[in-house]
Automatic annotation (TrEMBL):
<dbReference type="InterPro" id="IPR029063">
    <property type="entry name" value="SAM-dependent_MTases_sf"/>
</dbReference>
<protein>
    <recommendedName>
        <fullName>Class I SAM-dependent methyltransferase</fullName>
    </recommendedName>
</protein>
C-alpha cells in the first residue's frame, strides 16, 4: 500500500474515532441524566441529545463507509472499530425509540384502580380465574388440621392484581437504585405458584410456608421454578431474616387481627430502610397505621413529604417493568448500550406497550 493510501486510511480511522467519540458524549449525557431521580432530571438536555443522535449516527455511518471503501484490507485491520460502529448504528434506533417514550411519558399511578371496564382488565380477569383454578389444584384440598385455628389456608389472590403490586414495588425500588437483583419473599406461599410470577420481576424469589402439605406439593412446580427460587419451611411469627429482603408480600397469613398486627410490627421492625412491604388486604391491622405510598404498599422509613416525593418519582418510571433482557454479545460492543441499559432501569424500552 502506498504512503498516500496509508495516510488516507489513517485519516479515515481517525474520523471514525472522532464520530464515535461525539456520539459517546451524547450517550454519556443521557446516562448522567437518567442516573438522577426522575423529578431531578434535565429533560431538556435529554431532548437535545435525542435531537442530535440521528446526525451523529449518520456521521458514524459515513466514516465507517469511507474506511471500508478505502482498501479491501482495511476492514481486517480495523475490525474492532468497524464492528463496534456497526453495532452502535443498529442500536441507536432502539435508543431513540426508548428516549421518545421517556420524553413523552406522563405519570402513571403506582396501582391501577381495582374496578375497570377496559378490555385488557377483563381479559386479565379471565386469565386470573384460570390461574386460580390451577393454583388451587396444585395446593390441594386444604390445610393441615393442626394449623386450622391459627392460620388461614392458602388464599389465592388475583394474579393480575398481584402483578400490579410487584410492578409498583419494582418502580419504587428503581427510583431508589435497588431494583436490579432485589430479593423477594412471600409469606405463606402455599405450594409456590405465585413464585413463577414474582420471578419475572425479581431473579430468585423465595417463599416461606408452615404447612407441610403445601410444601410437599411444591415439587409439582419445581421444574418450572427459576434458578435460585426457593420455598422453605418457616414460621412467619418466628422468622428473623425479614431484613434480608427488598420486597415482602403477605396476604392474610394469620386469622386473629391481634396476632396479625404483631407479625406486621415485627416484619416492619426488621425491614431495611427503603424496603417495600406488599400487604393488600382490607382488615384493619398495624399496616394500616403506617402511611402508604399506594394502597397496601409500605416503604420502610418514608413518610410525609419524603414519601410524596418518592411517589412522584416512582410514577415517572415507565411501563416496561420488568424490562426485557438484551443480547449480551451486542451490549459488549455497542456504544449506545449504557443509555439503553439506563432506559431499561427506568422502565423504558422500544418494546413497551
Amino acid at each position: 500500500m502506498s504512503r498516500f493510501a496509508e495516510r488516507r486510511e489513517a485519516r479515515r480511522a481517525a474520523a471514525l474515532a472522532v464520530a464515535m467519540a461525539a456520539l459517546g458524549t451524547e450517550v454519556d449525557a443521557i446516562c448522567a441524566e437518567l442516573g438522577r431521580r426522575p423529578t431531578a432530571r434535565d429533560l431538556a438536555r435529554v431532548a437535545e441529545a435525542r435531537r442530535r443522535l440521528p446526525s451523529l449516527v449518520q456521521a458514524l455511518r459515513q466514516a465507517s463507509g469511507y474506511l471500508r471503501r478505502d482498501n479491501p484490507e482495511a476492514p481486517l485491520r480495523h475490525r474492532a472499530a468497524l464492528g463496534r460502529a456497526r453495532a452502535t448504528i443498529a442500536s441507536a434506533r432502539h435508543l431513540c425509540a426508548g428516549l421518545d417514550r421517556l420524553l413523552a411519558h406522563a405519570p402513571i399511578p403506582l396501582m391501577p384502580p381495582e374496578v375497570s371496564d377496559c378490555l385488557a382488565d377483563r381479559r386479565g380477569e379471565v386469565i386470573g380465574r384460570a390461574f386460580r383454578g390451577l393454583e388451587q389444584a396444585i395446593n390441594g384440598p386444604g390445610q393441615a388440621e393442626a394449623l386450622a385455628g391459627a392460620v388461614f389456608p392458602y388464599i389465592p389472590y388475583p394474579p393480575a392484581r398481584f402483578t400490579a403490586f410487584l410492578q409498583a414495588a419494582w418502580r419504587v425500588l428503581a427510583v431508589l437504585g435497588r431494583a436490579e437483583g432485589a430479593r423477594f419473599l412471600e409469606i405463606g406461599a402455599g405450594a409456590g405458584a405465585k413464585q413463577l410470577i414474582a420471578a419475572q420481576f425479581f431473579p430468585a424469589p423465595e417463599g416461606i410456608e408452615l404447612d407441610a402439605g403445601y410444601l410437599a406439593r411444591a415439587g409439582q412446580l419445581a421444574a418450572q421454578a427459576p434458578e435460585g427460587a426457593r420455598l422453605f419451611a418457616a414460621d412467619a411469627t418466628r422468622f428473623d431474616r425479614y431484613g434480608d429482603y427488598d420486597v415482602i408480600y403477605a396476604y392474610f397469613p394469620l386469622r386473629e387481627s391481634a396476632a396479625e398486627s404483631a407479625l406486621e410490627r415485627e416484619i416492619h421492625r426488621q425491614m431495611r430502610h427503603g424496603s417495600v412491604a406488599l400487604m393488600p388486604y382490607v382488615r384493619q391491622t398495624f399496616i394500616h397505621e403506617i402511611e402508604q405510598i399506594a394502597p397496601g404498599v409500605v416503604v420502610k422509613g418514608y413518610a410525609g413529604a419524603e414519601l410524596a416525593a418518592l411517589r412522584r418519582d416512582a410514577e415517572l418510571i415507565g411501563p416496561a417493568v420488568p424490562p426485557l433482557p438484551e443480547h449480551a454479545t451486542l451490549v459488549e460492543r455497542d456504544r449506545c448500550a449504557p443509555a439503553r441499559a439506563a432506559l431499561r432501569r427506568n422502565g423504558f424500552t422500544p418494546h413497551a406497550l
